[in-house]
Amino acid sequence: MPDKPGAVLTASAEHVMADELRSSLRGEVIDRGHPGYDEARTVWNGLIDRRPALIARCSDTADVVDAVRVAREHRPVVSIRGGGHQVAGSAVCDDGLVIDLSRMKGVHVDPAARTARARAGVTWGELDRETQLHHLATPGGEISATGIAGLTLGGGFGFVMRTFGLSCDSVRSLEVVTADGAVRTVSREEEPELFWAARGGGRGLGVVTSFEFGLHPLGPEVAGVLVLHPYERAGEVLRAWRDATHTAPETVTPELLLWSVPADPAIPPELHRTNCVMIGAVYGGPPGDAATAALAPQRELGPPLLDLSGTMPYVALQSANTWRFPDGERYFMKSHFMDELSDEAIDTLVDRYSRRPTPESLIVVRTLGGAVARVGPDDSAFAHRSARYNVSIDAGWQDPALDGTAIGWARSAWDAMKPFSSGGTYVNFAGLGEDASALRGAVFGSHEERLERIRAAYDPDGLFAPAARRP
C-alpha cells in the first residue's frame, strides 16, 4: 500500500480498489477498461485530458463514505467531481480516484422557510428551475450548466451578487464527508470552523454532498440591461461605465464585457462576431419604475450599437450565455481583483483585448461591493470582500493547435493588468494546475494560514491534500 496520499498506484492496487468499491457502492465504478471510461473522465473544458485510475460514480452519501474509506486505505490521488465545469479541470486527476457526485441530484425547496436543500451534483440551471417555481432564488452562476458545488465553495459570482451576496453567503448548512469517513452537518452552530472554510476556501476540505441555501424573493421576471456599443468607443464607454458603477445602488449588479457580438437571430447578421463593448446589469428586485430608474445609468453611456434591455424570466437570464461556452471547447481563465479602474488600466484592457487570438476570447469586468462587501472580511474564507472589481481574462478556442497562442494571450494580458491589481485572484478563475502554487497567497490572502490549520484538523493525514493544492 502506498505510504502517503497521492502516490501512483500499481496495476494490482487499482484492481483491488476497484473490487472493494464494487462490493460496497450502489453507484457505478468505472475503470480504464470500462466502455464508458472516456465519457466519464471528460469535463467541460476540452483542454483537460486526464486519465484517472478509477471513477467512483456515487449515488448517495453512503457511497461517498465508502469511497473515502477505500481511498483512506489505498492512498491514491483523490479528486472530487460535482458539475465538472471548472476551468482548471480539478474534478479529474491522473492515475488516481475520482469521487464523482454528478449523478447525485435532487432539490427540495421549502418556500415557507425560504430555503433549498440541493445535492452536490445539481447544476445552477436545475436549482433555479426548482426555486423559481416559488419566485425565489439564491445568487449564483452566470452559466446554467455550472455545478453548484465548486462555484459555491470558491465564493460564487452571480448576476445579482451586489443585492444578495456571493453564493457562499447564502449557504445555511452543508453535509460534508470528512477524511475520517464521518458525515458531518456543518453550519455556524455545528463545526463552525469547517463552515467558515467551506465558504470561499475552495477544495480539499472533504466531500460536500449537499448544500442548504437561503433563498431570496426574485422573479419570475427580472429587469436587466444589455447594451452593445461599437468597439471604436471602447475607452470612452469603459470610463463612463466605471463612473456609473461608483454610484450604482446595491440593487444593481453591473458588468462589462469586451467581446464579440453574438450570432443571435435577433441581431443583424452583419454584426455577428464583430468586436463590441457589452454592458450588462441586473436589478435584484421586481421589474417596474424603481428598476427602470436604477438601471438607467447603465443604458446612458453614449449612442449604442444595439440596446436589448428589458425584462425576461430569471431562468432565461441565468442560461442566456450558456450556449456561448459549449462543452468540449478549450478554455483558460485568469483574474485579478481591483480596487480601482484607472484610465491607464482601461487603456491597457482595451489594448490587450485588441490582441485576442479568437472571437471566443473575451475580457469581463464584474462589479462587487454592495452585499458582497457587507459581509465581514473574516466572516468567511472568501478573502476579497473589499475589492470593487474583478477583471477576468478568458481565452476560448477550438483548435488544439492554438493552445499556446490562446493561453499565451491570456497570460500576457493578466501580466499586463497585474500592476493595477489589489493583489488578489479569484479561485474559480485562477488558471490551471501549474498556476496554483504561485497564486495561493493571492487567492486566500490573510486567510491562508487559518485554512491550512482547519484542513490539518479535519484531514491530518492529507487525504485531500492534492485536491487542496489545485486551483
Automatic annotation (TrEMBL):
Its cofactor is FAD. InterPro entries: FAD-bd_PCMH, FAD-bd_PCMH-like_sf, FAD-bd_PCMH_sub1, FAD-bd_PCMH_sub2, FAD-linked_Oxidoreductase, Oxid_FAD_bind_N, Oxy_OxRdtase_FAD_BS. It comes from the Bacteria. Keywords: FAD, Flavoprotein, Oxidoreductase. Residues 48-218 form the FAD-binding PCMH-type domain. SUPFAM superfamilies: FAD-binding/transporter-associated domain-like. Belongs to the oxygen-dependent FAD-linked oxidoreductase family. This is FAD-binding oxidoreductase.
